[in-house]
Structure formats: C-alpha cells, structure tokens
Design a protein that fits this description.
Radius of gyration: 15 Å
Number of helices: 5
Strand order of the largest sheet: 2-1-5-3-4
CATH topology of the largest domain: DNA polymerase, domain 1
Structural class: alpha+beta
Strand content: 15-25%
Largest sheet: 5 strands, mixed
Helix content: 25-40%
Shape: globular
CATH superfamily of the largest domain: [2Fe-2S]-binding domain
Length: 149
C-alpha cells in the first residue's frame, strides 16, 4: 500500500506492508535516529512527535501517520542543540542510544508544561528508559533546560 507522510515538514511517499509500524517505515526512509529497542512500546527509544505529542513509533501503525505532522530528531535541530548543551553541562550524556526518543519527549514536555516540578518531570518521562544512568543527572538537566528560553 502506498501512503503519504509529512515528516519534518517534508512530504514523502512510501510503500508499506499491511500492519507495518511507523518505526520501520521511518527507518526505511533513512531516519536513523528513530531507534529500535523493546518493540513493545515500553522503552521510549522509538519516540517521535506526532502532531507535537510524543508517540511510540514501534507500536503505532504507519498508516496512523497519514494526515499528521511527524517530527523526528532531525526536525528539531535548534531545540536538540539547546538540550544537548544542558545535558553535557550537567554530565548527563552517556552512550546516546536512548537520546533521540528521550530528547523529543523532553522538547514536547517543555512546550506542554510550564515550570514543571521534579515529580511532574518524572511522570512525563515515565517510559523513557536509559541503561547508562541513574537518572539524577538527566533530571537536573531537564529541570535546567525547562528554564532555557
């Protein structure tokens, strides 16, 4: 089946298989920062923004992307750079495998919540797993990033 997707503001056409998930379709289109982790919607590595909301692309059918704005890490380069600087300054950068999904979730949170508490940040980030950290550096970085204009 041929479908049309709008990814990072660019219209794309792709042939998909019945039941194909968005993560697989995006990978085939060359969006390599849409990572594969658990494939059950539990780890957050595959997160993209669908109409600005964090969405697990490994458990979202590709056809669900039709008529919506799909944003990957590449589509948020300005905010990604700002967040990366804060992460680095807090010593919270690690191997980077979880970073694309985590970063997109943080960017969406910043747009949705004004001055969130640590508990609100933790709640929003539930489901974004990192195997490298104890999360404290990341929490400090997220809190600091929320204050960046």
């Amino acid at each position: 089946m041929e479908i049309k997707l709008k990814i990072n503001g660019i219209n794309k056409e792709i042939s998909i298989k019945d039941g194909e998930y968005l993560q697989s379709a995006l990978k085939r289109l060359g969006y390599l920062n849409v990572r594969k982790g658990c494939e059950t919607g539990s780890c957050g590595l595959c997160t993209v923004l669908l109409d600005g909301k964090p969405t697990l692309s490994c458990s979202t059918l590709a056809v669900r992307g039709m008529g919506k704005e799909i944003t990957t890490l590449e589509g948020e380069s300005v905010e990604v750079e700002k967040f990366a600087e804060v992460l680095t300054s807090e010593g919270a950068d690690q191997c980077g495998y979880c970073s694309p999904g985590f970063t997109l979730t943080v960017i969406a949170m910043k747009r949705e919540l004004e001055s969130p508490t640590i508990d609100e940040i933790k709640h929003y980030l539930t489901g974004n797993l990192c195997r490298c950290t104890g999360y404290m550096g990341q929490l400090r970085a997220v809190k600091k990033y929320m204050e960046v204009k």
